[in-house]
Structures are given as C-alpha cells and as structure tokens.
Amino acid sequence: MKGHIFILLIIFFGINHIFAQKISSQQKELEEKRLKLKKEIKQINNLLFSNSKTRKNALTQVEDIQVKLNVRSELIKVTNQQANLLDRRITINERNIGNQRKELDDLKSEYAKMIQKSYASKSLKNRLMFLFSSESFLQAYKRIQYLKQYSRYRKKQGLAIGEKTQLLQKLNQTLIEEKGIKLKLIAENRQIQDKLQKERVLQQTLIKILKQKQSDLKKRIVKKQNQRKAIDIEIKRLIREAIAASNEASENNKKNIFNLTPEAKLIATNFRANKGRLPWPLEKGVVIQGFGRQRHPVVKTATIQSNGVIIATEPSAQVRSVFEGEVMSVIIIKGTNPSVLIRHGNFITLYTNLSKLYVRKGEKVSAKQIIGEVFTNEQTGETQLQFGIFNNINALNPKDWVYQM
Description:
Blueprint: H1 2-48, H2 58-124, H3 127-132, H4 137-211, H5 214-247, H6 262-273, E1 286-289, E2 292-295, E3 303-306, E4 309-312, E5 318-320, E6 325-331, E7 339-344, E8 347-352, E9 354-357, E10 364-365, E11 370-374, E12 384-391, E13 394-396
Antiparallel strand pairs: 1-4, 2-3, 4-12, 5-11, 6-7, 6-10, 7-8, 8-12, 9-11, 12-13
Helix pairs in contact: 1-2, 2-4
C-alpha cells in the first residue's frame, strides 16, 4: 500500500513539474509578445503622432487612433493572460511550499526523535560498554558498523534538513517576486486601459464631427478605393502579360501560371523557402491597414478591399526590395504616385506610392536593395507605402511572408 502511495506521489510531482515548465514557457512567449507590442505602440507614436506641425484631417486622425487602439487592446489582452498565468504559477508554488514545509517538519520531528534516542542510550551505557559487552568478535564488528551507519544517517538527516530549508527559502523568494510582477502587470494594465479610454473618447468626438459630413466622407472613401482598383486592375493586366510572354516559347497553355526558366525556378523556390523570414520593405514602419476585405473604421457601411498592407513610415523613407529579382514593371497611373513590380520567379512584390524611383524595367535587384523613396503628403504629413505579394495572379497576405509583420 505504501509503495502505491509513493508511486502516486512521484507521478503527481512529475505532472506538477511538467505543468510548471509549460506555464514558464508560455509566460516567456507572452512577455516577448508584450514587449513587441509596447515597442509597436512607441513606433506608432513616433510615426503617426509626433509631428504636431501637420494638421491632419479628422478622418486621418480617426484612422491613426484606430491603429493605436487595436495594438493597445492586444496589449491589454496579453497582459491579462500573463497575470492569469502568474496566478496559476503562484498557486503551484504555494502548494509546493506547503508540501516542502510538511516534509521539513517531518524531517525535523524524525531528527529530534533520533537525538532523544541517542541521548537516552548514552545515559544507559556508553559506546565502549556497548562494544565490550559483545559476545563475539563478529558481534562487536557488527556493532561498530551499526554505530557508523547510525552516525552517517544522522549526518544525512541534518544535511537534508538544511537543503529542504534552503529550497523552502528559495520558493518563498520566488513567490514574493511573482506576486510583485503580478502587481506590476496589473498596475501597468490599468494605465493602458486609461489611455485606451481617453483615445476612444477622442476618436468618438472626431467621428461625431465626421458624421455631419457623411456624404462627403463616403465620396472620399470611394475615390480612394477607385484609385486602388485602378492600380489593382493594372497590376493584374501586367502580370497576365508577363505570364503570356513567359509561356510564348513553351507548350504551357495555362493562362495564369508562369513558365519558369531554371534560374527563375530556383529564385521562386528560395523565395518560398523564406516564407515568414523576408525582410521589411522599410527600415522603420508600422502596419496601419491589413490584408483582405474589411470594414472602414469610421463609415461602417463602407468596406475596403486590400490586396496588400499599408505601412506608415517616416518622411523620406527609402524602399527596399524584400528579395532578389527583376523589375517587371514601373506603373504610373494618372492621379496616383508610381508603383514598382519586382518579379521573383512566379512570385511578384508590389511597392506603391513612391515619390522617387531608383530602378527601371528589366533591372536586376538584390535583397534589401534601395529601389525608391516613399511619397509624403505635405497636407496630412502621411508617409505611407502600400506593399503586396502575389503568386502568379493571386494576392497573398504579406504578414505571412515578412518577418514579424
């Protein structure tokens, strides 16, 4: 029965240890995410809110605030998860402290009984009498071994008590530290929530102003969307032309798939192999609009279709190619700023809203090579790059391809 209990205790402590390790790993991941989000908020403030000289229109302000609100909300969520994990760790440590304290009390009790027994035996007869009273040499030898064993056991028990005391002190210190971290996280979370609330109030005030000009606002949104559609149509046309040209000299009859040369095939394979590890097209930047179909942050009835992401950056920011390839085309549409398409086998990257171009069609480029400069709107102070990735004619989400986007 005792053997079964002992095995169950080993299993219990083993599971407890694995669970604690899992929590520790999750806590590390969450801390990394929390620091990344804090860094992102700092970058948002630097890129979107630091220039007080430029008077942004209400719509731009609402969109910028929404970017910050999204990141703050995520930061609150991550901080709450950290606090909850710490609660679980604190519970485990409190349980471990209770178990260790009980074991220490048992060791001390057993040690005290041993000392009492040893003292009692000394008062009855000394060790020499214990040995000399042996009936044979063998019995005397066995008694010597017993005394040595008893002495070693006493020493071992004393060391065990010392180690257990140190472990208990360490657990208590860890518990104090974890409770301190939890309190710090809770206090930080309150500050984030206060800022979030203030920003929401400001955004709601601006939205009320905008709602009075709802029709004008819709026109501006539609105009912006039409400009994007024009670029998207031109991109698709250029990609289809490039596919047709690549398939001219081959038996490939597939309309929407590139026929690749051995060199292009190698570049495409390397591009795919770097999924999730591609460099950013800018040294500094924050994504202010994601990929795909989404509601407009102000006019909820309006939807935005984005075949890439929009990255806010600093004035005069230089744009760089995310991978080696060849400039497939330079697009200039009336009413919009230039765009560059770079081909990487059957993958294409798009860089839109440039003010300066440093490359031309047919030019070979290397990874991180500067290809142009982002346009800065003097009226709003916005410096934004639209960045996209295509596989043949299919638009891909850049967040899946660019490192920590």
